[in-house]
Amino acid sequence: MNFDYSDTSIALQEKLKEFMEIHVLPIEKEVELFHKNPENSWKRWPGLESLKQKAKDAGLRNVFLPGSYGALSAGLSNLEYAPLAEIMGRVLWSSEIFNCNAPDTGNMEVLAKYGTP
Amino acid sequence: MNGDIRSAFLMTEPEVASSDATNIETAIVSDGNDYVINGRKWWASGAMDPNCKIAIVMGKTDFDAPRHVQQSMILVPMDTPGLKIERGLSVFGYTDSPEGHAEIILNNVRVPKTNLLLGEGRGFEIAQGRLGPGRIHHCMRLIGMAQRALEIMSERTVQRKPFGRTLDTYSSVRQDIARSACEIQQARLLVLSAAYKMDKVGNKEAKDLIAMIKIVTPQMALKVIDRAIQILGGKGVGSDTPLAHFFAAARVLRLADGPDEVHMSQLGKSTINKYIQASNV
After folding, report:
1. Cross-strand pairs, B37
2. Which CATH code fits B6-121?
3. What are the pLDDT digits (tens) for B10-67?
4. What confidence category does residue A75 fall into, taking pLDDT thresholds of 50, 70 and 90?
5. Does B142 sit within 8 Å of A89, measured CB to CB?
6. What is the per-residue pLDDT across B229-254, written as a single tens digit (0 to 9) for each?
7. Helices (H) and strands (E) in chain A, counts
8. Domain Acyl-CoA dehydrogenase/oxidase N-terminal, which positions (chain A) (predicted)?
9. N or C: lower Cβ tally within 10 Å for chain A?
10. 3-state DSSP call for residue B223?
């Protein structure tokens, strides 16, 4: 067993940490307060879409889907993804920015495996 | 994969012990070119989100078949007539808006037969494949929560000075921090070993390790977050740090995607079988 992170994973970890520092942690409170306001019940925080686009531009989307899924995947193994999910776990709502949130990841995996376009 | 819409997974039911998925009562009945679905689901995470457009529903297509081939999974667009969101549920008071957790009624919901995934009776098979990665992803994120809790409590120890000296000089505080650092690293390495095995031999072969991390990681995170809350005092239970919400989220994961008891039962059985076979050699 060798749990050393690959160069690909290390490079993405650095990029993801930087993304969290610059774009997520400074607004963590603001997003939480938005969702706590009863007037915003079941409404999406308006800034999320632009964050998703930023993550896409940075090549940080869909890193959860293993390389065995071919073109749909970012090509990482579970071992390479683990430290990335750990970084996302530090802010409860952040996984969705990277399209790595439950339950959608499981559903996407099912559709990638068994679905027809 | 574009992240334009969100989705929900409808498996758990309020009326039956859904930790044993063979109990599920939602009926998926064939009718001409369609299936008609009737049942009640809850803890459908993500279903409250206005962007949630599609659900994967688990139900039974054959109540008389052997236990593990009664179930099927089917795609149901959220706007299908007969699908009604009854209410958004809360977890220790957190609604987790906007994605939320919904209770949903399925009343004569009709979808084309082509919406069935893989084939009749193969729902269990899909569930097993689906939940392995889901479980390890939850565990990876829990490590992140616990790690952040450790960092928050460490910072706090040099800021506060009860009874004349800073918290970091108290041996009980150092022990809490030391234990937390050990337990986080233990769980992290166990999660990495499960990830490694999934990569090398597949999710099915890695099922014992997946069970182990699902038993160990939420409990580890709860312990670490609890210590952090204790060290922070009043600030720890309020909303000025993420700790209280972390605690709620970690506690749920002792139940979500299979309660600890189910994973222990399966792991225990599998471990016993392994050693019975070994001793027969």
Report:
1. B28, B109
2. 2.40.110.10
3. 999 999 999 998 999 999 999 999 999 999 999 999 999 999 999 999 999 999 999 9
4. confident
5. yes
6. 999 999 999 999 999 999 999 999 99
7. 5, 0
8. 8-117
9. C
10. helix
User: What is the pLDDT, as a whole number, of residue B21?
Assistant: 87
- Contact yes or no for A90 and B245 at CB 8 A: no
For residue A1, give the nearest of B97, B142, B193 by CB distance: B193
Collect all residues of chain B within an 8 Å Cβ-Cβ radius of residue A65: 1
CA distances, B48 to each of A37, B7, B42, B61 (Å) = 16, 10, 12, 27
CA distance B191 to chain A (A): 8
pLDDT in tens, A9-30: 999 999 999 999 999 999 999 9
Q: Using CB atoms, pick whichever of B6, B48, B144 lies closest to residue A89.
A: B144
pTM (2 d.p.)? 0.96
> What are the boundaries of each domain within chain A?
7-114
ipTM of the complex: 0.96
> Where does chain A have alpha helices with state H?
7-19, 28-36, 48-57, 78-89, 104-114
Of B48, B147, B191, the CB nearest to A42: B48
Say if CB A48 and CB A35 are below 8 A apart: no
For domain A7-114, the CATH class is mainly alpha
Residue ranges per domain, chain B?
A: 6-121, 127-280
Q: What is the pLDDT of residue B30?
A: 97
**Distance from the first to the final alpha carbon of chain A:** 38
Tokens of B76: 């149901």
Query: What residues in A contact B136, CB-CB < 8 Å?
Result: 78, 82
Q: Once rounded to an integer, what is the mean pLDDT over residues B217-226? A: 98
**How many CA atoms within 13 Å lie on the side-chain side of B198?**
33
Q: Which fold has domain B127-280?
A: Butyryl-CoA Dehydrogenase, subunit A; domain 3 (1.20.140)
**A14 vs chain B: nearest CA distance in angstroms?**
15
What is the nearest CA distance from A15 to chain B, expressed in angstroms?
A: 16
How many residue contacts between A and B have a Cβ separation below 8 Å? 146
Helix (H) or strand (E) segment spanning residue B59? strand B52-60
Partner-chain contact B242 A92, CB within 8 Å: yes
Amino acid type, B177:
I
How far does the CA of residue B112 sit from the closest CA of chain A (Å)?
Answer: 14
Chain A: give the shortest CA distance to residue B165, in Å: 30
